[in-house]
Structures are given as C-alpha cells and as structure tokens.
Amino acid sequence: MDYTLHRRRIEFQGHTRTFLVVEPSHLGPHPDLLLFFHGSLQSGNVMRRFTNGTFDELAQRTGTVLVYPDGVDRHFNDCRAQLPVAARELGIDDVAFTRELIRLMRAEFSTSRTLACGYSNGGQMVLRLLFDAPGLINRACIFASTLGEGANHAPSNPESAYIPTPVLFMHGTSDPLAPYEGGVAGIDAARTRGPVTSAEWTARHFAALNGADSRPQITAPYPGVKLRRWEADNPVELLTMEGVGHVIPSGNEIDPRLGATTDAFRAANVVERFFGLRR
Q: pTM for the whole thing?
C-alpha cells in the first residue's frame, strides 16, 4: 500500500463526525481534494470496499487527497424533500460539514481544487452541494442518482443560485433503487425517497444550466455503454450502462439485490479522465 489511511473524528455542530483520509505517498505542493460520499446504509470504509479499492488507487497514482465522509446514522441529509432518515430528522447540516472538511484539508495539505463523487444518497448529497454551496465544488460525479421530480427536488437555494460546474453522471438502465427512466426511488414502499426524474432528463437539465449545446455528442466507448456529452466550458456527461444495476463498476462482485454490474470499464478511470487528475 503506497498511501496512508487516517481515521479522523471531529466535534461539529453538536455531533461527533467521522471521516477517512487517504494520503498518497507523493503529494505535490497543492494537490487536488476528492470527496467521496457513500450511499444509504454505508460508510466511508464500506465505500472503499464497494469500489474495490479503485479510488484509493486513483488517489495514489494521481497524488490526490481523498476523503470519505461518514453520514450521520449512515445517511447524508440530501436535497430530496422525502428522506425518512435520522440525518433529516435531526436537521444535520451536511453542507456546513463539507465546508469544514475542505477547510481542514486545505490547512493540512494545501489542497487546491475540490472535486466530489457521490453514490445513491451520496450522489444526492453532491446534488445538494451544487445548489446549496454553488462554486464550492470544481467538478462532480454522480453515480446512480437523479434529481427529485417536482416538489421532491428541494434544495435550500433556488436554482438561480447554481454556478455552472462540469458534471459526470453514471447510471445503469436496470437500477432497481434509482430508476433510470425516473419514477419512485427507494428501498421499499416504507422507505421511499419520492418521485425522481430520469437520468437523461437530469443530465439535460444540468447541460441547460451550464449553457451547453442542446444536442449531445453520442459515442459508445465500451461494450454495452453509451456516452452522451453536452459540450460547453462546463461540460456534462452521462454514461448509460445497459442492463446494469445500482452499482459503481469496479471489477468486483456485488450484492445481487443491487442488480448486475459490468466488467467493460472501471468507473475510477472514467472519473480520472473527466476530473483531469494529474499522474
């Protein structure tokens, strides 16, 4: 292992918050910072295993400081109106917590750009940051999450506060929890996260917010994968994975309840390209 893993905890707004820091063995004077927000019922350490260590490896080979925040009671207080979890009931301010993490990493490592990935509930947390902390994140990647539909899209800020930001989406067409074509998201009827828009509608919406071309360039970079790219100073990309479930392709076996995965590519490599990380 060519990096150091730090387990940290801080007292913040009356709660003990925990997070993991992956510190590469070779850091430049102003490394990038990558925040990775886990999904529902996960943790930072679970996310490291869920992605088969591929993002730890990305951090090491690109000299990127990687932080895995832990949500309160294994959830983040995301931007959907319907979120029946403790983080919402307790009014957890995960936007402020994210700002504090960035401040701490800048103080310790002199980090420059701030990049963010999020999966499922963590993807919704990244969506919240894009609207409720405009300009805080320089680039974003969202796995298996789409915008809430109608009143279920409920960030604190109006959309007019959004600052154009490059955004990458990855979504499987057979996702059983966050439907690719839109619908009701959630684990079951008792834990629904309300209606959500489709993956393509979400990507097109961000493309419009970013002032991108209305018609995307469409390519097939991997077997069973379609890439739509809306070109602009702040581009938007949607990687559609045919027959794939609620996953982050990482070359490992996953719980079959999440659906199928693919070995056609590694998500970490696509993120490295889109974020322009240095080797």
A: 0.97
